[in-house]
Amino acid sequence: MRNIAFPAALAAALTLWSVPVAASEFRVVTDRSEFVQLIDGRELTRFGIRLQVDPHGEIGGRGFGFDVWGAWEWNGQFFCRDLGYGNTALGHNCQVVAVRGDTVRFVADQGQGDHADFRLR
Prior knowledge:
By secondary structure, the chain is an alpha+beta fold. The chain has one domain (5-120). 18% of the residues lie in helices and 49% in strands. The protein contains three helices and nine strands. The protein has an eight-stranded antiparallel beta barrel. The chain is globular, with a radius of gyration of 14 Å. It starts with a helix and ends with a strand.
């Protein structure tokens, strides 16, 4: 039997944090080709989560023993994704992407919401 704390931990780790993006620390990615250059052939990691975001619009990986799945597209200046894990859908959200070194920050709600930082490996 799986520990029920794992789904809650995974949801929390995939959820964005409520801390503003400091413009001086991160550079905003403004187009799809730049985003693809960042992620192509690399893995995004965060708190026990390993994701592959491929250039063709798919998201896959594992987090705390669960499959993570989804799809993405670039819309204007935003990374728009549908994401879930196991049988749980987290839904659609368009996000600002910013980068600092090997850290990629996704800021929900077109840059007006919470954020999550992932390391590029």
